[in-house]
Prior knowledge:
By secondary structure, the protein is α/β, with parallel strands linked by helices. 54% of the residues lie in helices and 13% in strands. Strands 2-3-1-4-5 form a 5-stranded parallel sheet, sandwiched between helices. Bound molecules: shikimate-3-phosphate (S3P).
Amino acid sequence: MRVYLVGYMASGKSKTGRTLADDLDYDFLDLDEMFEERYHVSIPDFFHKYGEENFRPIERQLLHSTSGFDNTVIATGGGTPCFFDNMDFILHHGISVYLYWKAAILAKRLNQVRKKRPVIGEMKGRELEYYVQKHLEDREKFYLKADFFMDMEKDELTSLVYRIKNQAFGLNLSF
Ligand code: S3P
């Protein structure tokens, strides 16, 4: 069984994923880290040299390779579910969770880690907030297809763990 975490940049997919993996006694896999380790290049450098259009097909291939992993929590990249048929793949190959934050909060969180995110480049302040608002609107139609919705401001991880266990183990599902 696999659990895919989806959500915007800086929504805490990696941090939440690690904790969730511990709680479920699963392994943890970060798709961005997988990319960087496999190709020996940071994602910002890759974007800079080869562009997003060359990143997305590789990201898709890596996503597809996760079907070989069992008992694993997988943190996807913020754009992963929004390209090709990736969200359908996610829905067919595991349980998925959307980590939701309001756009204004995401913009604040992103302000601190701008350099690692080539998609937002040098934007900051009001410009960044406006961009995140629009971009999140475009992307949410994919994120909202996830099996579970976690409001990161309100929901406890323990209740997500409970819901996942109920769905996966209660119904004795295996993917
Ligand atoms: C991206 C998000 C990043 C990374 C790449 C593109 C995006 O992952 O995959 O920079 O398009 O939202 P995080 O969501 O982990 O920042």
